[in-house]
Design a protein that fits this description.
Elements (H helix, E strand, L loop, with lengths): L6 H14 L7 E4 L1 H9 L1 H10 L1 H26 L3 E5 L10 H21 L3 E6 L6 H8 L3 E5 L5 H6 L6 E5 L5 H4 L2 H9 L1
Parallel strand pairs: 1-2, 2-3, 3-4, 4-5
Helix pairs in contact: 1-4, 2-3, 2-4, 4-5, 5-6
Length: about 190
């Protein structure tokens, strides 16, 4: 297998699967098409394109989604991974409207996740934002697991309804505690 773009990630995953994959879960990792596009355009331009160049942004997001699907195929076929962690942290009410989030973030992301599910990959969607659109992410994306910050607005209340439907992974305060808290404070938060 020779792929100049994905080679390092795929080979690292393959090696980890061979070395520890039978005793622990090895995860692939990538981001939503919207987050990848923010790296291509710059975040401010991404926000502007939603309003001023929506057709061009839709084309870009489609291309990014196709690339992420190819990554999933390669991770599944060449590394043996069975799960992937996907960052979706821009699906947030403080950064976007729900309408724009659905159109430009969650719709392209859904296509990627559907492809991953068709490949047998389990998906963990991550959203660590302060005001996440968790309900919409769960409904539109249907991930096997969701990783969220318990301090996010209405997150704990919303996630209670998901108990028994999917795996929930609660995150600690990554905005302040992780950078300014003592190790003891972090350990207490993790234990909760």
């Amino acid at each position: 297998f020779d792929d100049p773009i994905c080679d390092v990630q795929i080979n690292a995953a393959r090696i980890m699967m061979q070395d520890v994959g039978k005793i622990t879960m090895v995860l692939g990792c990538t981001s939503s098409p919207f987050i990848v596009a923010s790296g291509i355009l710059g975040y401010e331009n991404l926000m502007l394109w939603q309003m001023l160049q929506p057709e061009e942004l839709t084309k870009l997001l489609s291309k990014v989604a196709e690339s992420l699907k190819m990554l999933g195929v390669r991770l599944s076929n060449y590394s043996g991974l069975d799960a992937i962690f996907l960052s979706g942290g821009l699906a947030d009410a403080e950064q976007n409207t729900l309408e724009m989030c659905l159109r430009f973030d969650l719709e392209p992301f859904r296509e990627v996740i559907r492809e991953y599910h068709s490949l047998g990959l389990r998906t963990i969607v991550h959203n660590c934002s302060y005001a996440p659109f968790l309900e919409e992410q769960v409904t539109v994306l249907d991930p096997k697991a969701i990783h969220f910050w318990v301090g996010a607005r209405e997150a704990s209340e919303r996630m209670i309804s998901e108990i028994g439907r999917r795996t929930l992974v609660a995150g600690i305060d990554h905005q302040n505690l992780i950078y300014q808290g003592s190790l003891d404070e972090i350990e207490v938060a993790v234990a909760r």
